[in-house]
Each structure stands twice: as structure tokens, then as C-alpha cells.
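JOB MANIFEST
job_type = single_chain_structure
chain_count = 1
residues = 262
[input]
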Amino acid sequence: MKKSSPLLSLVLLLGACATSGAAVTPSVPAVPSAVDAALLGDDAVGLADAANRLCGYLATQEERRLGFELARKAHALAPRDKPVALTLARCAYFRADWEPDPKVMTEVAQAGMDAASAAGAKDKEPRSAYLFGLNLGLVMQHKGLEALSLLSQEIEALEAARAEPEQDLGGPLRVLGALYLKAPAWPAGPGDLEKSLELLEEAATRFPSHPLNRLFFSEALAEDGEKQSAAAQAAMALELARPELWGDYAERWQGQAAALAK
């Protein structure tokens, strides 16, 4: 039987809670940049397009901060534009995932949740539901025991996202699988090793090129006592986690994979 483990050790490329679709303006300090958002004027679509290009695995921290600012301005200009809202939700995740200040991180991730809701998460639209779940996962990391009350929202969002499992190369499968692996087991929580293994095996099989699919599957196999198989998956994750492909995320994943590959 799976041992209970702290839920919020989830470090994820981590819903049906309906929040306001109005412009999101969290109290996140603007970061000086070589590019002035005023350069693009009030072109919401242009701002969102630039933001999308600045937010991703290969972006620098400065680029992710700028991307978030551009996306926030775009959403303020066009709060009912769903693609723009999706861009803000995406940029908020990449911005918040590397923010060392818990208060700022929570505010940015909350902006991402609000934007994802505006884009359709409240209606279980798969792409917005996935981004809602990613940002909620970050918020939960600093909620302590309060996070347990948010688990049902997280699971509901990720289940909706599974309708498009190809997002982020199996993202909905691996995030939900990791949640079932890391969450406290019944009766304290929804943790379920069997469900975790099923989801993570599917992610690693259907989308084998994403290092996290291999890494999380390795963790689940190790929890199940399959040490040799776990080490093999971890070794593949270590091989796949190249900075040329995944930027600064590669170093984060390499450290986790190296420990499991031994």
C-alpha cells in the first residue's frame, strides 16, 4: 500500500472554480526590461503573440517576466478574448514557476488561474483547464493543510484536460499521475499508486520524449518497489533532459533523475 507523502512536494509543469473574467491586475512589481511594452501600443493580439514567444522552456527568467507583463497588458485590453486569456494563463505559469518569493509567486499563479477561468476552464475546456491546474498546483505549494481543500478542484481540472492529452507532450496525464503519487493516500486524501502508475505509464509510452514523463513514471515505479525499471526510466529522463531542448528546466530535472537512476 502506498505510504502517505506530502502533497506539496509536487514540482510540476503543475478547476472548475469559476472566477472573474475581468482584467487581471495582481500586485506584482513590474520588472525593468530592454523592451518597453509601450512599443506595441494597445494591440492586444500583438502583445499576446509577443508574450507567447517570450514564455516557454527555453526562455530566460527575464524573458518570462517580460512575457507575463505583455500578456497581462493584452488581457487588460481584451478581457473577453479567450486566446489572449490563454496566453496570460500560460505566461503566468512560466513566470510563477521560477519565482522565489512565495507571495509574488502566488499572486502571479492566481492571475493565471483567473485568466484560465476566463478562457474556459470553468466550462472544462481542455487547454484552459490544464493551465488552470498548473497554476493551481503552484498556489497549493504554499497553502499547507489548506491545500487539501483545493485537491478536488485540481483533479477536476486535470480530468477535463485529459480530453487533449497531447498538450505539453502528455502534460495532463503526467500532472494528474504525479498528483495521485504525491497526495496523501486514503482516507487522508486521494493518493492512489495504481492510478498514478496507469497514467504515468500512458504518458511515458505515448509521449516518450518529455523527460518529466519518464521521471514521474520512475518515481511511481520506485514507490511500487520496481527499482530496476525505475532506474531505467530515470536514466532515460536524464538522457532526455538536455539544456538545448529544455533550457533551465533541464538542470532541475537532471538532479531529480540522477538520484533515481542510481
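[summary]
The domain at 166-261 is CATH 1.25.40.10 (Serine Threonine Protein Phosphatase 5, Tetratricopeptide repeat).
The radius of gyration is 18 Å.
exit_status = 0
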